[in-house]
Amino acid sequence: MSAMSSQEQVAIMVEWFNQQFEDPQNETPYNKDLGGYVYLWGGPFDASDQIQAEFSDAVDFDTMMLAVDRVQGDGTLEWAPTTGGDFYEHPEDDRVEAGEIVDGDGEWSPIIPDQAPVPPEPEARAEVIRRLDELEAIVQPLLDKFEAEAQAPPMMGHNNPPEELEIVQAVSRDEWRQVKAAIDEIRQQTQVEEPDIGSVEQSNNRLLAAATALAGWIQNRVNAAIDAGAAIGVAYGIANLEAARAALIGAAQAVQTWLASMHWPF
After folding, report:
1. Residue 246's closest CA among 84, 141, 137?
2. Mean pLDDT computed over 180-187
3. What are the backbone angles phi and psi of residue 196, rounded to the nearest 5°?
4. How far is it between the farthest Cα atoms of the chain?
5. What are the domain boundaries of the chain?
6. Residue 192: half-sphere exposure toward Cβ, Cα within 13 Å
7. I need a surface site. Which of 42, 52, 71, 75 has the fewest CB within 10 A?
């Protein structure tokens, strides 16, 4: 590549970038409460950082900046990974069931399968209930642990363990309680004939926010080569932190599909 002209190098870098990254408005969920995109699959990514990381060994800085200017020409400065790219983070422990429509790689399903047909509303509603049950089975032991700690007398000369400080930096006790409240609210809405769409969406945003925070916490430990996630999770009632993230994403996906299946006027 170093033997190519500057124009050819720019074209190749732009093509590579567009294969790996996209405008978040294409597929990335948007959280109205947080006022921003929820990067569940990795990101946001910076064009300059990624192009330099990939091509700095073969291309000079000024040429790389030409490519950056080209990809940022429409004003997009933060990027999401494309589903078929190398930077897309697949949710762990969210295996595709036999016959399920996937995003083309034959292994993982997207959180919001735009190309998949929307199921009938009763079927989508039942899937929400099933996903909520799975998520609650993960969240409730964590809340029970918090409650037990609150009632236990303090040990003299003993501070909170580092594991506790780390896990609540990702998703605080109050946020986990909000996740449980969101589960309860969405489940209640599944029991009525005409659910409150605004309430369902607001509760689902809480699930998305927790999934994003947990994903970032896990990724930080991957970047730091720290393999303590599972041990910390077990200590707080979660056997697998990736499973917790996948359960949050799975529930959010089910709710999105349920909302899409509703055809009555509101």
Report:
1. 137
2. 95
3. -80, 105
4. 71
5. 6-81, 121-261
6. 11
7. 75
CA distance linking residue 62 with residue 64, whole number of Å: 5
What does each C-alpha distance from 48 to 13, 54, 122, 156 come to in angstroms? 11, 10, 47, 52
Bridge partners of 95, per DSSP, are: 108
Strands 21-22 and 30-31: unpaired
**Percent of the chain scored above 70 by pLDDT?**
70
Average pLDDT of span 239-243: 63
Rounded CA-CA distance 178/210 in Å is 9
Residue 168: its pLDDT value, please? Answer: 56
**What is the token pair recorded at 151?**
């009632």
Q: Distance between CA atoms of 71 and 15, rounded to whole angstroms?
A: 9
Identity (one letter) of the amino acid at 208? L
Q: pTM for the full model?
A: 0.52
Mean pLDDT, range 73-87, rounded to an integer: 90
Question: Which residue(s) pair with 81 in the sheet?
Answer: 21
pLDDT band with cut points at 50, 70 and 90 for residue 55: very high
Residue 258 tokens read as 């349920």
**Cβ count near 126 (within 10 Å):** 15
45-77 burial, b at 16+ Cβ within 10 Å, e below that, comes to bbbbebbbebbeeebeeebbebbbebbeeeeee
Give the DSSP letter string of 95-132.
Answer: BPPTT---SSSSSB--SS-TTSPPPPHHHHHHHHHHHH
Terminal Cα distance for the chain, rounded: 57
Compute the distance between CA of residue 176 and CA of residue 218 in angstroms, rounded to an integer: 16
